[in-house]
Amino acid sequence: MIRACLFDFWITLVEIDQLDIPTRKERFRDFLKVAKDIFDHCYDETATIADRLRERFAKEVTSRDFIQLLLKRLEIGDDPVDDLDRIYREAVLDLDLRLREGAKEVLNYLRSKYRIGLISNTSVGKVVRQLLKRFDIERYFDSIVLSDEIGIRKPEPYIFHYALRRLDTPPEQAVFIGDSPYLDVLGARRCGIYAIYLSRGEEYPPHLPRPDLIIDGLASLLDRL
Amino acid sequence: MIRACLFDFWITLVEIDQLDIPTRKERFRDFLKVAKDIFDHCYDETATIADRLRERFAKEVTSRDFIQLLLKRLEIGDDPVDDLDRIYREAVLDLDLRLREGAKEVLNYLRSKYRIGLISNTSVGKVVRQLLKRFDIERYFDSIVLSDEIGIRKPEPYIFHYALRRLDTPPEQAVFIGDSPYLDVLGARRCGIYAIYLSRGEEYPPHLPRPDLIIDGLASLLDRL
After folding, report:
1. Cβ-Cβ contacts under 8 Å for A133 (sequence gap 6 or more)
2. Backbone phi, then psi, for A98, in 5-degree steps?
3. Mean pLDDT of B110-127
4. A181: which chain B residues are within 8 Å (Cβ-Cβ)?
5. 3-state DSSP call for residue B87?
6. Listed residue (B121, B118, B122) closest to B110, CA to CA
7. Residues A154, A147: contact at Cβ < 8 Å?
8. B166 burial type by CB count under 10 A (0-12 exposed, 13-18 middle, 19+ buried)
9. Which of A187, A189, B21, B189 lies most in the core, judged by the most C-beta atoms within 10 Å?
10. What is the three-class DSSP state of A25?
11. Distance from CA of B104 to the nearest CA of A (A)
C-alpha cells in the first residue's frame, strides 16, 4: 500500500541544457574585479576543494560555504558574501531551465492519491524554492527537503529518513523517482524505499543495485501508480 | 582475530601540499596550443561533467576518460590521447608528495603479522603504482586495488569486498585505515570491516557512523595492532 511519492528535482522534474559553472565564474570575476589569471586560478582551486569536501565528508557545500572559501583564497574579506550569494542564485535562475514534459499532470494526478515529497541535492536551496514557484508546482508538495538546508546529501539514508518522517510514512509505503543510479536509486533502495529510475537510455551501471522499476518519461507514472 | 590490514593511499600514506588541477590544466593547454579563453572554458566544463559522472553513477572517471571528454568538447580528434595521458601522469608525479611519517615502519611491522592491502580512489592508478615504487613501499602490499582499474569507487562495498577476496579474508577479520569519514570509514563499516580513522583534528561529521578507532598518526598503529 503506497502512501507517499517522493521526487528528485534536477533532471527529474526540471531539465537543464547548459552547465552553469562558467557563467557563475565570469559573473563573480566581473563583480570582484580581480585579474583574470589570479581569479581563475583561485576559483578553480576552490571548486576542487568544494568537490573534495562533498566527497570526503558527504556534507553539502552551500553557496555561502563556496563563496567564503573563494574569498579566503583570494585574500578578500567577507564583505561581498551577500552580493556574491545573490549573483550565484541569479546565475542559476538565468539558465535555460524547463519543466520536464508531463511533470505537472503527474504531480496533479498523484496528489489526489498520495502525499508528495521532494528531495534534492543543491548548494542553494533558495533557488529550488524559487523555481518551484516559477513553474507553479510548489503547491503540490507536502514536504521539500534540500541538502544545503539540512547539511546532508543523497545517497545518505539520513536525508531519505528525514523526508519520510515529515510525510509520516514508513519506507515500505514510499516510492522515490529520480534519474541518478547512485544518488537516487541506490539511496532509496538502501532505505527500503521502492526506487523508480527515470532513464534517458544509458546502460544501467552493472555494479549498482537495480531499480524496482525503470521508466522513460514521467507520464508512465500515470499508468503505474 | 585480525588477518588483514588495508590502507587508503592519498593523505593516509602519502601527503600532498598543492592541488594538482591548475598544473594539469596549464600543461594540457600548452601542449594543445588552444586559445586560453576557449581552452579554459572547455576544461572547466569537462571537469564539471567528470564530477557529475562520478557522483551520479559512482563510476570512476579515468584519466583517459577525462582526456577523451575534453578533446570531444574542444572538437579535436583522439590523436593526442596518449600524449595527454602521459602529461596527466607527469603532472601528478611532479607534485610535492611525501610519505607520511611512520608509514614505512608501520607497514614493515604489520607485514610480519598480517596480510596487507591497499584500496585507493584514483583516476590514474599507474601513478599510484609508480609512487609506491618511488617511496619503496610497494613490496609490503599483498594486494593493490585501484578504482580506475576496476571501475568502482569507495565508498561502494564492491571495492572493499573485491580487495578482501584477493586477501582471502572475511570482513570481520580485516581492518581498514583511512582519512576520509565518508569514503573510508563509512565504506569499511558498511562491509563489517573494523574502521580506523586517521584524524587531522577536524570535528567528526555527526551524521556519519563513528569509526571503531580514531588515531592521530600512523605510529599509533604499532601499539594497537
Report:
1. none
2. -135, 145
3. 95
4. 56-58
5. helix
6. B118
7. yes
8. middle
9. A187
10. helix
11. 25
| Pairing verdict, β A97-99 and A14-16 | antiparallel
Distance from CA of B57 to the nearest CA of A (A): 5
Place of cell 580513522: B197
The pLDDT confidence band at residue B145, using thresholds 50, 70 and 90, is: very high
- The closest CB to that of B205, out of A41, A57, A183, belongs to A57
- Interval A160-178: pLDDT, tens: 999 999 999 999 999 999 9
Domain ranges of chain B: 4-16+98-224, 21-93
Comparison of pLDDT for A137 and A25, the residue scoring more: A137
Q: Are B170 and B146 in contact (CB under 8 A)?
A: no
Give the nearest chain B residue to A36 (CA atoms).
B37
| B171 prior amide bond cis, ω within 30 | no
- Banded pLDDT at B120 (limits 50, 70, 90): very high
The answer to whether B59 contacts A21, with C-beta atoms less than 8 Å apart, is: no
Q: What average pLDDT does the structure give for chain A?
A: 92
The residue of A12, A19, A38 whose CB has the most chain B CBs within 10 angstroms, and thus the best one to mutate to test that interface, is A19
Write the burial class of residue B139 (CB in 10 Å: 0-12 exposed, 13-18 middle, 19+ buried). exposed
Tell me if the bond preceding A155 is cis, omega within 30° of 0.
Answer: yes
CB contact (8 A) between residue B49 and residue A19: yes
Amino acid at B224: R
Q: How far apart are CA B111 and CA B114, in angstroms?
A: 5
Measured between beta carbons, the chain A residues lying within 8 angstroms of B197 are none
Strands (E), chain B: 4-7, 14-16, 97-99, 115-120, 143-146, 174-178, 194-198, 213-215
Taking CB atoms and an 8 Å limit, are B207 and A58 in contact across chains?
yes
Q: How close A220 gets to chain B, by Cα (Å)?
A: 23
CATH of domain B4-16+98-224: 3.40.50.1000
pLDDT at res. A54 = 86
Under 8 Å between Cβ of B12 and B198: yes
Does residue A18 have a pLDDT over 80?
A: no
Interface test with B, best of A41, A55, A198 (most B CBs within 10 A): A55
pLDDT at position A22 is 61
Quote the crossing angle between the two packed helices A21-32 and B36-57, to the nearest 10°: 130
| Chain B: closest CA distance from residue A205 (Å) | 7
Cβ atoms within 10 Å, residue A18: 12
The answer to whether A162 touches A187, Cβ cutoff 8 Å, is no
Report phi then psi at B214, rounded to 5: -115, 130
